[in-house]
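Open question from group meeting: does this chain pack into something compact, or does most of it stay loose? Before anyone orders reagents, we agreed to write out a predicted structure and look at it together. Recording both the input and the output here so the notebook holds the full record.
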Amino acid sequence: MASSASPGVKFVPEEDNFLQRHVAFFDRNKDGIVYPSETYQGFRAIGCGYLLSAFASLFINMGLSSKTRPGKGFSFSFPIEVKNIHLAKHGSDSGVYDKDGRFVASKFEEIFAKHSKTHPDALTGEELKQLLNANKEPNDRKGAIAGYTEWKMLHYLCKDKNGLLHKETVRAAYDGSLFEQLEKQTASKKHP
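Structure tokens returned:
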């Protein structure tokens, strides 16, 4: 599958654009385009099983491709253009990414100030449910489903032995560094 990027030129996400950095992990060949096969490889790299990785690659790429490719026709290869990922932001979210994909620290802190009641720097499963309900916008089923899926997958992959999702883990998910950490952990389990 050909990329629209120049041959040999690697895509580098903008330093202050956390949403690009989040998505760039899945751009396995670093050409600025994420195909379903790369999404699948990324999910496998962070420790997800075959079925979850396959489902995620189809769900994500089919849902985001056309939004990140303004003015371009439909493509059965469902590419996601990393530089335009901000165009695929969904509703019913936390507001931690602004309209351009930059990190909004006050919105991040608000998640924990409003919802982490049991532990100041972590969310329980019940608190996560409350967060999702608070973020729901009227008549935004797609956004609510996307938000639910993202947060539940994060909780599933990253909760501690007590079922807590820690603040630093959520922060790392937003800036994309969590995926690199999970990839290293997964690789070390396979090759101790």
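Observations to bring back to the group:
Residues 40 and 53 are 5 Å apart (CA to CA).
Residues 141-158 form the longest helix (18 residues).
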